[in-house]
TrEMBL record:
Sample GO molecular function, one term: transmembrane transporter activity
Annotated keywords: Membrane, Transmembrane, Transmembrane helix
Gene3D superfamilies, alphabetized: MFS general substrate transporter like domains (1.20.1250.20)
Tagged with keyword Transmembrane: yes
Protein name listed in UniProt: MFS transporter
Organism name: Draconibacterium aestuarii
Regions crossing the membrane: 21-45, 51-75, 82-101, 107-126, 147-170, 182-202, 223-241, 261-280, 287-307, 313-338, 359-379, 385-407
Claim: Transmembrane is one of the keywords in the record: yes
Pfam family, one: MFS_1
Amino acid sequence: MRNKLINEYRVFLSYPHNMRVLLITNLIYSLVLPIIELFIGAYIMRNSQEAKLVVIFQLALYTGIPITFAINGFLLRKIKIAWLYAFGMLLSGVSMTAMMMLSELNITGIAVAGLIMGISYGFFWANRDYLALETTNDQNRNYYYGLETFFYTLTSVIVPYFVGVFIGATKENHWFEGNINTAYQIITAVVFILTIISSIYVHKGKFINPKQEKFIFFRFHRLWNKMIGLSILKGLAQGYIVTAPAMLIMKLVGDEHVLGTVQAIGAIMSALMLYVLGRISKPQHRIYIFSIGLIIFALGSFINAGLYSSMGVIMFMLCLVVARPLLDVAYFPIQLKVIDLVAEFENRNEFAYFLHHEFGLYIGRLLGCGMFIAMTYFITEDFALKYALLIIACIQLFSIFVAKNIIKNSKKL
């Protein structure tokens, strides 16, 4: 076992320095993301009991991302990319602090905190995506995303479990006079520390900014337009999938302790599977990985709608823990391959495609969140929690055919 771990470490060291720095930076920051994605939703639900406020937070967040992508493109002409990347990570802690300082959770306060988090995500993802493109190639991207997703999957087990235990123990043992919000404030402080560490480490890389060229376009090659169609389908699920677990568990299962424990079940096996996939899979295997992820997601959504109980939520979470990283480990290399091809064909700045792609995701996210809000207002919240996921999962299955067509046409360009 020891020899195998040493061999894997040597494999890691065989890759370019900048690629390794980016992976380690993302590993540190991956300890923050589960807190943002799961426990902010749980915090809002605990203090307001209104699922629509969770969705409003997400809508504000998603609105901030594409706007920041555009701002980031202009700032890259003056500021080093590593500084903007670091700023995005630090800003996530600011957003959580703004949330904790609200005396009352209302639509305005939630929207402002969500917008700040969206700006944070915008700086983080805009620069992370570009650096991933620049530090990898089509042959090593399966390894890169396999290892990165391995990190994210493991932290999605470890972090929610320990944070959930800490919050649960605060209530049970009457720490801080039983004030759970104090526990959330301590967690926010830890987030700040982790973002500072990751922000410092990213400067170990020797990253080069994109060329200072025009990056806003409105007409693109037809292959890229198909990629935008795929991004809209991806965004459709993202618009709801980030907040759905917290809302379902707080409503049907229990408290934050359960939220953390449920996330832990099955995720370690999933992480190991993803690492192996990243090591041994080739570019031609991406469509199969992508399809399996979508089918597992649809299965979990069907179970949740059919049972709509604590057991249904647990089964859905298990499917999600496996499906979500499978989709990411296949989707991102497909996206970067298309950018490689189309940017060269159209002789454009690669950042232009990341910006346009983000607006495609935003359209999908708006549709996903809008569907949930419409169901909540015009039918019932329970109906929305029960069927929105199932409808989205069924629509998502069309992504298989779109992705297959993109891969086929990429070979012709």
